[in-house]
Design a protein that fits this description.
Blueprint lengths: L1 H8 L3 H13 L13 E2 L12 H13 L18 H13 L4 E5 L2 H12 L5 E5 L4 H9 L3 E5 L4 H11 L6 E6 L11 H11 L2 E5 L21 E5 L9 E5 L1 H10 L1 H4 L6 H16 L2 H19 L13 E5 L3 H13 L2 E2 L1 E3 L10 E5 L6 H15 L1
Parallel strand pairs: 1-10, 3-4, 3-5, 5-6, 6-7
Antiparallel strand pairs: 2-8, 7-8, 9-12, 11-12
Helix pairs in contact: 3-11, 5-6, 7-8, 12-14
This protein binds pyridoxal-5'-phosphate.
Amino acid sequence: MKKIQSLKLKFPKTLQKKIDKRKHEGSFRKLKISDPTLVDFSSNDYLGFSKKQSISEFAEDKLKEYSSELHGANGSRLLSGNYPLIKDFEIYLAKQYDAESALVFNSGYDANLGLISSVAQPHDLILYDELSHASIRDGISLSPARSYKFKHNNLKDLEAKLSKFQNKFETIYVITEHVFSMDGDEVEVEAAIEVCETYGACFILDEAHAIGTLTNTGYRDYGNKIFARIITFGKSFGSHGAFIVGSKDLQDYLINFAKSFIYTTAPSQDTIARNWAAHDYLRTEPQDFESLRSIISYFLDTLKTHNLASYFIESNSAIQSCVIGGNQKVKTISNQLQAEGFDVRAILSPTVPEGKERLRFCLHSYNTEVEISKSLSKLSKLLN
Ligand SMILES: Cc1ncc(COP(=O)(O)O)c(C=O)c1O
């Protein structure tokens, strides 16, 4: 008992100060259990796949097909954790995404960290969108390469930087997101590919929020023009994990040098079977994707009806962000919407820049027009 008390007393002062600062700034985070009775405008389960019975059944069939009695992975991929189901799933993914290879990681965070930190070398340069996800920025800070950000979704600024740095570095990597996680807006992929091609840069595209929301296939014909695509299972696929598609050389390289791939237990067979099932379902049953697209259209129309469009960042994706500004103000409005039965979360600084604090509406195939009308009508009253 005494020992526990003295440990508690020893919590470093500098860390306590950081916690106090967060509390003072209204940005202290607490874990909260989601209330299932609220209307879901917050989860990343855009297509409702995490609850879909037919996906669960297909996943069970997959496990039976591979006569797998193991539910875990039993080790890292390079040791005892490389089982036939995961190997065949990667072959399936490579085919579906029209690439030479696919490599599964435990999460999108791990995939970005492992990829970026291992490929970029001391004489290389990384150019990345200024609003890139934390996993991209952490991958960059672990790499020995130089790095600069370019203005958000501004291909002119990217081009100016590529032109300035061309021939000054061995390899230039350009990294961005297809759909931005906090803003919901999109990069023009084809144009970005063209810019990278012009300057001989390697293009890395994080597609976490794009697959299943902008396209139900995701298998667009990018050919070999993208160095690496990162796709996560935790969003539209309603599960957990991620994979990187690219060349066979990239796969060989990552297996040898990406630490977040090497030094960790492989994903469980249960997870892989579910991810496979979810992929097959998305490809063959387009109805949830179509419902999501029509809910997004309805949401955008309703914003106009309530004169709310100017508060929202322009977006055609499942992420719709209402920029309000000020941690306290956003939290208050989020709480008021929650009290009315709508689970709309506040996104605070420092997750987003100060002054750009916002409410983020995540839309789903299972949201209804009535839920959207009621929540936006309430929001309009709170804002005006
Ligand atoms: C753009 C983007 N990349 C990567 C990730 C990380 O993916 P995961 O949740 O699988 O770690 C996220 C998750 O929030 C994301 O939004």
